[in-house]
Inverse folding.
C-alpha cells in the first residue's frame, strides 16, 4: 500500500469530488475556517462536465472551487517549497480569475453583481518576513484611511508552525491542517485519532494507496512536479532572473542527467508540451515559458 499525501493537488481534488462524505466535510471545514463561509455545495471547476474519475481529476490543472451561481471562486494552491516565481504567478492568477468574471460583459448586468475571488495557499514552508506567522489573511487596504476592498482575498497557511503547535496540543482546525504535513500513515494517525472526519480521510487515503490505477496516476503526477521543478528552478531561478547564460546551461545539463537517470528521456518532448500548457494556465507569457525551457 502506497502512502498518499494530502500535500498534493491530485489528492485534494480526488477527496473533494469522489471521496467519502466525511472526507468532504473535512476539506469543507478547513476552507470554512479560512474564508469564513460554507462551501459545501461548491463544485470543482467545471466538474459538471464530467471530471469525476481518477484520470480526469489528474488532468485538471487547478483546485478551483466554484459556487453554483458562479459568483464565488476559491483557488487552492498547495505549495511544498518556496519558489518565488510560482508564488508570484499564483498571486497574479487570482486577479486573472477576477477579470474572467467580466470578460466580454461590458454591457451586462453582471457588472452589478458582487463577486468573491479568494485564494488559499497551503504552504509547506515558513513566512519569509515573519517566521512566527501561522495563518495570514490579506485584502486590498488603503493605508491612510483603513478602507478595504473585499473583492479579492488571500489566505496563507504556514504548515511548519501548525505542526509545531500540535506537539503540545492544539485546536481541531490545526489538527486538520497538520494532516497535510504527515509523511506516513503512522504520523497521520496521531492527528486523526478521536475525530471521525480525519479518521475517514485516512481510510480514503489508504484505499487510494491500494488502488493501482490511482497510484500510477499519483506517481505520474509526482514526476510531472519534479520535472517542472527542474525547469523552473534549475534554470535556476537566479539564472532566469539575472540572465546568467552559464547558469541556464548548467540547469539544462542537470535536467538531462536527472532525466536519463529516471528513464524518462524518451518522453521529454511530450512532457514539455504538458508543462507548457500548465505554465500557460498559470499566466506565464510565451517569452517567460521560452526562457524557462530554453
Amino acid at each position: 500500500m502506497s502512502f498518499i499525501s494530502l500535500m498534493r493537488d491530485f489528492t485534494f481534488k480526488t477527496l473533494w469530488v469522489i471521496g467519502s462524505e466525511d472526507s468532504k466535510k473535512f476539506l469543507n471545514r478547513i476552507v470554512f475556517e479560512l474564508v469564513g463561509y460554507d462551501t459545501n455545495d461548491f463544485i470543482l471547476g467545471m466538474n459538471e462536465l464530467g471530471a469525476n474519475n481518477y484520470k480526469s481529476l489528474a488532468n485538471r490543472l487547478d483546485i478551483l472551487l466554484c459556487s453554483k451561481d458562479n459568483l464565488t471562486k476559491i483557488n487552492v494552491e498547495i505549495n511544498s517549497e518556496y519558489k518565488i516565481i510560482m508564488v508570484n504567478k499564483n498571486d497574479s492568477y487570482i486577479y486573472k480569475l477576477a477579470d474572467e468574471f467580466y470578460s466580454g460583459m461590458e454591457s451586462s448586468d453582471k457588472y452589478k453583481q458582487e463577486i468573491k475571488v479568494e485564494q488559499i495557499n497551503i504552504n509547506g514552508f515558513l513566512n519569509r518576513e515573519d517566521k512566527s506567522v501561522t495563518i495570514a489573511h490579506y485584502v486590498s487596504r488603503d493605508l491612510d484611511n483603513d478602507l478595504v476592498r473585499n473583492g479579492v482575498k488571500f489566505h496563507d497557511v504556514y504548515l511548519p508552525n501548525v505542526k509545531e503547535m500540535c506537539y503540545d496540543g492544539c485546536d481541531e482546525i490545526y489538527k486538520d491542517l497538520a494532516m497535510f504535513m504527515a509523511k506516513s500513515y503512522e504520523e497521520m494517525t496521531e492527528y486523526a485519532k478521536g475525530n471521525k472526519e480525519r479518521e475517514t480521510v485516512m481510510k480514503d487515503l489508504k484505499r487510494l494507496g491500494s488502488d493501482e490505477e490511482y497510484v500510477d496516476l499519483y506517481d505520474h503526477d509526482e514526476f510531472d512536479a519534479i520535472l517542472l521543478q527542474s525547469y523552473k528552478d534549475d534554470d535556476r531561478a537566479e539564472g532566469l532572473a539575472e540572465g546568467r547564460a552559464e547558469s541556464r546551461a548548467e540547469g539544462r545539463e542537470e535536467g538531462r542527467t536527472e532525466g536519463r537517470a529516471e528513464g524518462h528521456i524518451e518522453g521529454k518532448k511530450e512532457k514539455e508540451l504538458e508543462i507548457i500548457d500548465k505554465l500557460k494556465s498559470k499566466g506565464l507569457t510565451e517569452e517567460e515559458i521560452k526562457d524557462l525551457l530554453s
